[in-house]
Amino acid sequence: MVVISSPSDLIELLVGYQPAAAISAASQLGLFDALNDRPQPASEIATCLAANHSNLNALLEALVQLGLVSRTDDGFTNTPFASAHLRSDSDLDKVIRKEAFFSKAWLRLSEVIQSGNPILDPWKKRLCEQSDQTTEFLYALDALARITGPPLEELPELVPGRVLDVGGGLGTYSRALAEAGSTMVLVDLPEVIELARGYLADLPTGSVELIAADLFTEPTCGIEIESVDAALVSHMLHDYSEETGIGLLRSVNGAIRPGGFIVVNDFASDIGPGAFGVLFDLMMRVETGGVAHDLAVLTEMLLSSGFCDVRRAPFPAPITVLIARKDS
Ligand SMILES: C[S@@+](CC[C@H](N)C(=O)[O-])C[C@H]1O[C@@H](n2cnc3c(N)ncnc32)[C@H](O)[C@@H]1O
């Protein structure tokens, strides 16, 4: 736990938004695209971006100190890292744009604490009315899962077999598990399934079956009863209360064959490092109206929905992967 013991410690925390804003501005301006391997003076870059010369120079100097831009006597270039990872539509650029979007909601945290309601509209409404933003969000989740997610394909409970990917999004984990030898059944809402169809188009036919269904209205998640060997529930439970989560897990349970497995991949409120889990919990309250459950509650949710032998897979924190068997 961090201990703040001096005014300057607190001030350092308070200005933490500034580097993020500088990186976000660079992304919005297309600065990492404008910089190339040949050093360019700030005036030339400002002309190219139709930006104010003096302010752009200040941003470039800040990015030099943040380690994302290099300066020589002849001008500015991307660092090798920025060149490789920060150009438009790179994975990290998607994450930068996602965080810029959500930071506006975080600035209204006090409203969330008072009202008990999230800032954003419910996901199904956003999917219909803000499709550009929700598509960007799903691609950012895909990038985050590939960069920071656990290698679930290493789990013998998920590979080989016929595996249900519950709320699988674009299909990041379905892709990894299918490539490792499993046959996947990905269930998600119709708008997301259409995006997943494009994202997974290069995989062999039949390796990922796509099913458009509402997990909360269709029994057994919209698939045949006891028709899969295992199910993956990744980053779903934090969007719901304990009671609603148990309802979802019971539906998942009905889809798994006797003796099959469930794997829950999520973040728990009591797993760090540091403030990670508790800040993730706040994030859910701001963004979705969900909560990050603690490890004991996640375990209890599984036990209450017909699973047994719950154990945590040995992936490093903050990754929290729980494996359980369907009670027979
Ligand atoms: C946070 S994303 C997780 C995506 C993916 N499982 C992962 O780990 O990256 C939650 C997913 O659940 C889906 N979802 C939310 N409510 C749903 C519902 N009622 N029926 C089907 N899918 C739903 C969303 O569309 C989204 O793809």
Automatic annotation (TrEMBL):
<dbReference type="InterPro" id="IPR036390">
    <property type="entry name" value="WH_DNA-bd_sf"/>
</dbReference>
<keyword id="KW-0949">S-adenosyl-L-methionine</keyword>
<dbReference type="InterPro" id="IPR036388">
    <property type="entry name" value="WH-like_DNA-bd_sf"/>
</dbReference>
<dbReference type="GO" id="GO:0046983">
    <property type="term" value="F:protein dimerization activity"/>
</dbReference>
<dbReference type="InterPro" id="IPR012967">
    <property type="entry name" value="COMT_dimerisation"/>
</dbReference>
<keyword id="KW-0489">Methyltransferase</keyword>
<protein>
    <recommendedName>
        <fullName>O-methyltransferase domain-containing protein</fullName>
    </recommendedName>
</protein>
<dbReference type="InterPro" id="IPR001077">
    <property type="entry name" value="COMT_C"/>
</dbReference>
<dbReference type="GO" id="GO:0008171">
    <property type="term" value="F:O-methyltransferase activity"/>
</dbReference>
<dbReference type="Pfam" id="PF00891">
    <property type="entry name" value="Methyltransf_2"/>
</dbReference>
<feature type="domain" description="O-methyltransferase dimerisation">
    <location>
        <begin position="12"/>
        <end position="88"/>
    </location>
</feature>
<dbReference type="InterPro" id="IPR029063">
    <property type="entry name" value="SAM-dependent_MTases_sf"/>
</dbReference>
<dbReference type="Pfam" id="PF08100">
    <property type="entry name" value="Dimerisation"/>
</dbReference>
<feature type="domain" description="O-methyltransferase C-terminal">
    <location>
        <begin position="162"/>
        <end position="307"/>
    </location>
</feature>
<keyword id="KW-0808">Transferase</keyword>
<dbReference type="GO" id="GO:0032259">
    <property type="term" value="P:methylation"/>
</dbReference>
<dbReference type="InterPro" id="IPR016461">
    <property type="entry name" value="COMT-like"/>
</dbReference>
